[in-house]
Amino acid sequence: MFNSSFLKSTGKMLAIGAALLHLISCTSMTTEHTTTQSKQYPYTTVPGDSLHTRIYTLKNGLTVYMSPYHDEPRIYTSIAVRAGSKNDPAETTGLAHYLEHMLFKGTDSIGSLDYAKEHTELEKIIELYEKYRATSDPERRAAIYRDIDSLSNVAAQYTVPNEYDKLLNSIGAKGTNAYTWVEQTVYINDIPSNELDRWLTIEAERFRNPVMRLFHTELETVYEEKNMTMDSDSRKLWEELFEGLFTKHTYGTQTTIGLAEHLKKPSIKNVINYYRSWYVPNNMAICIAGDFDPDETIRMIDQKFSKLEPKAVPEFVPPVEPAIAAPVIKTVTGPEAEELVLGFRFGGADSDDADMLTLIDKILYNQTAGLIDLNLNQQQKVLEGGSMLVLMKDYSTHILSAKPRDGQSLDEVRELLLEQLDLVKKGEFPDWLLQAVINDLKLEDLKALESNRGRSEAFVDAFVWGMDWQRYVNRFARLESITKEQLVEFAKKHYGSNYVAVYKKHGERKSEGKIQKPPITPIKVNRDRSSAFAEQLLSKKSKELKPDFLDFKKDIGYYDLTPEIRLHTVPNRENEMYNLYFLFDTGSNQNRKIDTALDYLSYLGTSRLTPAEFSQELYRLGAEFTVLTADDRVYLKLSGLRENFPQAIALLDELLADAQPDAPALEKLKEGIRKERADDKLAKRKILFEAMVSYGKYGPKSPFTNVLSEEELERLTPEELIAEIKRFMSYRHRVLYYGPDSPEILMKELRTMSHFGQQFQPVPESEPFTELETAKNRVYVVDYDMNQAEIIMLSRGETYDASMVPLITLFNEYYGGGMSSVVFQEMREAKALAYSVFSVYRQPKEKNKHSYIFSYIGTQADKLPEALEGFGELMQKLPESPELFASAKAGIDQKIRTEHITKADILFSLEEMRKLGLNYDIRKDVFREVPGMTFEDIEKFHETRLRNKPHTMLVLGKKNNLDLETLGKYGEVSFLTLEEIFGY
C-alpha cells in the first residue's frame, strides 16, 4: 500500500481531473433511467457525457459509478471511502492510514483457518494494547509488548497471511493497492473483465468484517513508513506548508501518517471504532471503468454488497480559517536541494474559486507558454519553476514553486514568482491565452480518458468532493464563460500578502525522533495452506478469454518516407489526437554533447520568431514538443490535435532548420547544468538508484558518468551546439506515428520537412562500457543524513536469452515481484523488517547486456543485521508453497489473456522486441510454456542463478548509524564519495 498523505499525485496536478472524451455542451438536467430486468435499478446520466456514466444509489446508500469502455477486456476499479486523515481523532492521528493497511489482512473468512480460536487470542491482544497504551513505565511497556508478541504468534497459527493479495493475484489483478489522503481512503485494482464476479465476491467480503490480525507486524511496517517520511525533505516541506495554511482545519493540524508519539501508543479498539463509524455503504462508492455490461454488473454489485448495513455518518464541520493578513514564512532544513514553495488558500473543489484557479494555474504554468514558462524557465531565471493546484472538499490551495539558481537567494525566487502573479493581476498576458488554456485542458482530458484509470479517478474525485456529476461534466462550459476581465478581478482580490512561504534550505534535518524497533518474533507464514473461503472461490471457474498477441506485420503499417527513413504507423480510431516520434538509435553513449544540444534547443528561437513567440505559437496550435534522451536513444516527440498538424509540423521544421544561436542563453544553461549537477548529488534516489547502481554495474566509468567535464562544458559555443543538432538530424532514424491521419496524408506532410531532403548518415559507434563481473562480495557505502538505511544487492547474471523469459517471469512472480511473493511475505509480513522490499531477476533491455539479481530493502538502520540475514536465507533456499505457486501461474495466465497492447504502445512494443533481437510478441512464449512448469523448475533456477552468487551491496545511510561490523560479513566495505559515483 502506498500513502499519499500530502498530495494525491506527483507532478503537475490537473485542476479539475479527468472527465470528458469530447467537447461537452452545457446542460442543466440529468436523466433518470431504470433497467428493464425483473428488479429495477434506477440510475442517472448526464446528457452530453461521452463517458456514458451511469450513477446508481443502492438501497443501503452505496454509490456506484460506471463507465463502459471496451478497449481491452479489463476493468479498473476504485472503492472510495469518504474518510481520511481529516477525520482522525486528534489524540490518535494516523488512524485512517493505519486502517487502510489493515484492510489487506482479511476477515473472519479471508485468511482464516480457524477463526474461533484466532478470535480468542485477538481479544487478548486488543486488551493488551489498551494496557500498553496507558502505561508509561518503559520496563512495564516492554513486558506487555513481549506478551503481545507471544500471543500474536499463537494467533498467527490460525491465519494465512496475505491471502487477500494471493486471491487477487490468482484472478489476474494488477496494481492492487490503496492510498489514504486528507478526506478519502481508496482501494484500487485493475482486474480481468471475466473475473468481475470473483472480484466483487472478494471485495464485498473484505469490507464486511475486517479482522485486525497481525497488528503488531503491520504496525511495525507503518513505523517504517513513518521513519521513511521523516527522511523526506519534500514531505516535511508540504507538511509545513499545510500547517501554515490551515491553522484550525485538520488539513494542517495533523498529517495522514500521524505523529510518532501517537503511533507509539496504538489502539486496536480505536481502529475498529473508526471502521464502524466511517466504513458504511452510504459513505462509500464503487467506481469502475472498462469492459462490462452495466445492467448485469449492477445486479452483481447489489447481490454482493447489499449485506453491508447503512448508518448515520459522523458529521465533519469544517472550521473557518482566519484570513492570512501577512506572509507566513516558514523554514525547513534537510540534506536535499534548496527550494521555495508559496501557497494560497481558497474555497473547495466544488466552489466557484476552483474554476478561476484552474485557468490562473494554466496561465501561469502550462509547460509551454505560461508566464512562469516564458518569463522564468525559458529565460533561465530560476530552476524548475511551476504552479499546481491541490483541490480538496473544504478548501483548496494554489501552489507556486521553484528552485534557486547558483548564487540566487530564496528571497529572490519568491519575488520572481510573485511578479508572475502581479502580471495576472494587471492582465498582462495575451488575450488568446485564455482560450488556448481551455483547449489545453480539453486535450489533457482526452489523454486521461484513454485509460480506464483516468475515468475511474474522475469518479472518485467527484464522489469525495461531493460534486454533482452534472457540474463535473459541465465544467468546460463554465470555464468558457469566464472572461479575462473576471479573471483579472479575481486575481486582484485573492492574491496579495495572504500566502505561506516555505523556505527549504540545505542543512541538518530536524524531525521527530525515529521510532525504535521493538522485539518481534517472526510469525509463522502458513503459505502452504488456504482458507475455506479461498478454496471455494478459486474452485469456481470464470469464463476463459483468449489472449490477444501482437502481430507486428499486421498491427503496424510500414512505409518508406525516403529510401533510408521508415515510417511505422498505428491508426487512432478513438479521437483526434496524434503522437509523432522521430526515433534515433543514438544517444549520449555516442555523443556526450547531444543532451546539452537538445536541451539548448528549448531556449532558442528562429529568424522569424523569438523563443517566447515560438513557444506561444506552438501552444496556440494545441501542440507540444518534447525531447526524451537516453544512453543510446533519443525521441523527438510532437503531439497535439489533428486539425493543426500541418502547422505544427511546419513550426517544428522551422526550429530544427533555423534555430538561431543565443550566447546569453547558453551561458545561463551552463550555470543551470552546474546547479542541477550539484542538486543531484543531494538527492537520495538519484544517489542510490542511478549513481550507485551504475557504479555497482560498471565501476567508475559508466554511461551514467559519461558526461561533459566542467572544462568541456565551459568550452561549448552556440554555433557548436546548433551544428550538433543539424548533424544529429542527418542520422538515419525511424518515424513512429499514432494518430487519425492516413499514411498517405501523413507522408505528404512529413515530406515537407527540410531534413528529409538530405542524405542520411549511419549513427556513430557507441563508446564501450563493460559490465563488471562480480568476482567477490563487495560492499559500497555512501554516507547520507537519514534515519533509514536503503540497500540494493546486485549480482550479475547471464546475457539475454529469450528462451529463459517464461521461466524468469514465473520465478519473479513467485519469488519477489509483488505483495504475494515469498520475499514480501517473509521480510515484511512475517518479520516486519521493511516497508518496501523486493527481489527480482531483472532482464536487460538489449540482447548483449546482462541480467541482474536486483534486491532492494529500505529499513531502519538498527534492523540492518536482521534484514540482511533474512535476505541471505531467501537467497540460499527457496521456500515452497503449492498454493502460492499455483497463484503465480494463474496470475500470469490471466494477465496475459486480458492484456491487450493497444494504441502507441504497439509501436514501442516492436521497438522493445527489436532491441532484444526478436521480431514477435514474447508473451506468446510465456503464455505457452508457464502452464507446464513445475516448482522444481523455479527451484533449480534459484539454485543455479541466485544461490551463493557473489554480490555487490550498495548501502545508503548515515555512517554513524550503520553497523559496519555486520556489513563487513557480507564483503569488503568501501566508502564511496559523491565525486566517485557521479564522475564530477
Automatic annotation (TrEMBL):
Q: Any keyword DNA repair?
A: no
Per UniProt, residues of the Peptidase M16 N-terminal domain are 74-118
Signal sequence residues? 1-30
Q: Which UniProt keywords apply?
A: Hydrolase, Metal-binding, Metalloprotease, Protease, Signal, Zinc
Residues in Peptidase M16 C-terminal domain copies: 269-439, 737-884
Biological processes per GO annotation:
proteolysis
Name one matching Pfam family: Peptidase_M16
Keyword Methyltransferase in record: no
> Which GO MF terms does the UniProt record name?
metal ion binding; metalloendopeptidase activity
Q: Which cofactor does it need?
A: Zn(2+)
Q: Which family does it belong to?
A: Belongs to the peptidase M16 family.
Question: What is the name attached to this protein's record?
Answer: Peptidase M16 domain protein
Q: Which organism is it from?
A: Chlorobaculum parvum (strain DSM 263 / NCIMB 8327) (Chlorobium vibrioforme subsp. thiosulfatophilum)
Taxon lineage: Bacteria, Pseudomonadati, Chlorobiota, Chlorobiia, Chlorobiales
